[in-house]
Amino acid sequence: DIQKGQFSLFDNGQEGEEESFFKEEVPEEELDKGQRLVFEKEMLGLYVSGHPLKGREGQLTANSDMSLLDIRGEKDGAIKKVSGIISHLRTITTRKGDLMAFVDLEDMAATIEVIVFPSLFQKHRELIEEDKVISIKGRIDKKEDQIKLIALELIELKKGEQVEAKGDKDLVVRLSPVQCKQTTMLRLKDILRSNPGPTPVLFELVENDSVTKMKIGPDFKVDNNNRLIAEIMELLGAGSVVRRSQNVQKTAAAN
């Protein structure tokens, strides 16, 4: 006790009463993967043991015009569709008393702030929550070195939903010169051939500000599925695969 020079770290001055130093107790039982990621985000502010979008890359790609990393190169005012998970959400009340939201949308490569004005927020209020995976069609808003997305439409992407094939789209695989090693290219070739389907494949060789586009032959058309996207990203990294309209300029045929 205090008179003997001893006291408890949690002593509140009343004998027999203690309160936990921690506001949240760590669960004793082992958490499943989804619960563990949510717990990590709540306690640490980031994901440690994995990413909640892992395994859903194909679904995101099929419901996006591009990744959040690529959207930064688009023009101000362009209308684009992107997908990701709501990693942070902040709501405010307007002068008229309506609620609107500022959403951090995150995919496997980057994060962008999305502004959801009152009319759309009211329409989809149940979807605008942290950890929801959604697809957003929006208008790019660029000011100086900042880029945001003004939400126009949004839908929820439920886990396990069938990915619908999208016409007039190429699967774009982005490579740096460092990645163009024989072992890497042979592995990429095996991945593509293991997923045959109707979607054309386009390579983009990215070096500094230069992009060389190469459309490969019909033997390498693929099926856009979660496994394919996940395998390519595992080989080349996040942001290495996007879907893009078949409006390709300066395309060189590659055999």
TrEMBL record:
Pfam families: tRNA_anti-codon (PF01336). Residues 81-156 form the OB domain. Residues 1-11 have a biased composition (Polar residues). One of its GO terms (molecular function) is 3'-5' exonuclease activity. GO terms for biological process: DNA replication. Residues 1-26 are annotated as: Disordered. This is OB domain-containing protein. It comes from marine sediment metagenome.
